[in-house]
């Protein structure tokens, strides 16, 4: 079912309506990839032309290699454990998130071993990223997707617990804006494990100090 | 999402395990069974694809293949 949500139009700094999709299909992932790939590629080329080294580009744009076409395979299998959410505005995909509902557990001592919603991938459209374009179009896209992951966690009986492996570039967002707790020893592949507790989830939904009003 | 209701018949021993796991995982019995179904399906799909499932003893570093019939 689709819902109307509010995201932030960066140019006017005003809220604007967008459509939240709670069941993104493999075809829709392909559509998003077709919209995003040329923008990602152009951004990398611009950075190369401006004299940035591949290492610098990787630091600024760590997910430049992501391909939602490959991720679409998981949806085609029809797995109950996999869900994909998306936000669409003006006929273009503004953000996507793939979640796993089974196979991942909390690592924080207080809730160790208890299930959580694992965010496998979360990406905001490249035209919304400050490091990629001079004038990003929409804000709050990542925040709305995190909010949706928390709400799903509550519906599934996981009490708002959410976990993920963060790209270094995204750590600030998860730590400061989303109130997630970093667990040093639980990371993999050069990425840190971040976890949202039941209390952190409740605070996020209330829109507290680091809540859901800014991105 | 529309949900359907079913009656589940379990032995006392099965019910005891269900209740204990639900308590340990901080889940309702329904949520626990839904988790079990997701995991079972995920394993089934991957095994059908030719992948294997292993259990590893962290202390002795022994690996054993789990065969699901």
Description:
With 215 residues, chain A is α+β, with helices and mostly antiparallel strands. Chain A is built from six helices and nine strands, in the order ββαααββββαβαββα. Chain A has a single domain (2-206), classed as Aminopeptidase, CATH 3.40.630.30. In chain A, 33% of the residues lie in helices and 29% in strands. Chain A has a nine-stranded mixed β-sheet, with helices on both faces. The radius of gyration of chain A is 17 Å and the shape is globular. The relative contact order of chain A is 0.14. Chain B is α+β, with helices and mostly antiparallel strands and 69 residues long. Chain B has one domain. Chain B has helices spanning 12-25, 29-48, and strands spanning 53-57, 62-66. The model of chain B has no long low-confidence stretch (mean pLDDT 91). The interface between A and B is medium-sized, with 16 and 16 residues.
Top keywords for this entry?
heterodimer; A: 215 residues; Aminopeptidase; globular; B: 69 residues; alpha+beta; 2 helices; 49% helix
Instruction: Order the strands across the largest sheet of chain A as they lie in space.
Output: 6-1-2-3-4-5-7-9-8
Largest interface: A-B, 16 and 16 residues
Our estimate of the beta-strand percent of chain A is 25-35%
Element-by-element helix/strand order of chain A: EEHHHEEEEHEHEEH
Number of contiguous helices of chain A: 6
* CA-CA gap between termini of chain A: 25 Å
* Regions with little confidence, pLDDT below 50 for 5+ residues of chain B: none
What's the β-strand tally of chain A? 9
**Class computed from helices, strands and strand pairing of chain A:** alpha+beta
Per DSSP, the total helix count of chain B is 2
Q: What is the arithmetic mean of pLDDT of chain B?
A: 91
Sheet of most strands of chain B: 2 strands, antiparallel
Q: Provide the number of structural domains of chain B.
A: 1
Instruction: Report the sheet-strand fraction of chain B.
Output: 5-15%
Rounded to the nearest angstrom, the radius of gyration of chain A is 17 Å
């Amino acid at each position: 079912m689709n819902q109307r949500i509010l995201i932030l139009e960066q140019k006017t700094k005003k809220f604007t309506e967008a459509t939240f999709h709670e069941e993104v299909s493999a075809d829709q992932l392909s559509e998003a990839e077709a919209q995003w790939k040329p923008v990602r590629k152009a951004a990398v080329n611009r950075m190369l032309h401006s004299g940035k080294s591949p290492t610098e580009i990787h630091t600024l744009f760590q997910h430049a290699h992501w391909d939602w076409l490959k991720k679409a395979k998981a949806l085609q299998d029809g797995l109950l454990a996999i869900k994909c959410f998306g936000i669409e505005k003006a006929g273009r995909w503004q953000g996507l998130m793939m979640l796993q509902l089974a196979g991942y557990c909390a690592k924080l001592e207080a809730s160790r071993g208890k299930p959580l919603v694992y965010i496998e991938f979360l990406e905001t459209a490249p035209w919304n990223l400050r490091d990629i374009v001079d004038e990003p179009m929409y804000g709050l896209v990542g925040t709305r997707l995190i909010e949706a992951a928390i709400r799903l966690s509550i519906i599934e009986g996981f009490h708002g617990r959410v976990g993920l492996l963060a790209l270094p570039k995204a750590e600030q967002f998860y730590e400061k804006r989303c109130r997630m707790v970093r667990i040093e020893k639980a990371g993999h592949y050069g990425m840190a494990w971040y976890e949202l507790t039941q209390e952190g989830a409740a605070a996020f939904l209330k829109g507290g100090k680091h809540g859901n009003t800014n991105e | 999402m529309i949900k359907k209701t079913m009656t589940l018949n379990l032995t006392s021993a099965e019910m005891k395990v269900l209740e204990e796991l639900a308590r340990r995982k901080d889940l309702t019995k329904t949520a626990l069974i839904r988790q079990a179904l997701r995991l079972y399906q995920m394993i089934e799909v991957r095994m059908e694809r030719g992948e294997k499932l292993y259990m590893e003893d962290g202390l002795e570093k022994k690996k054993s293949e789990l065969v699901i019939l």
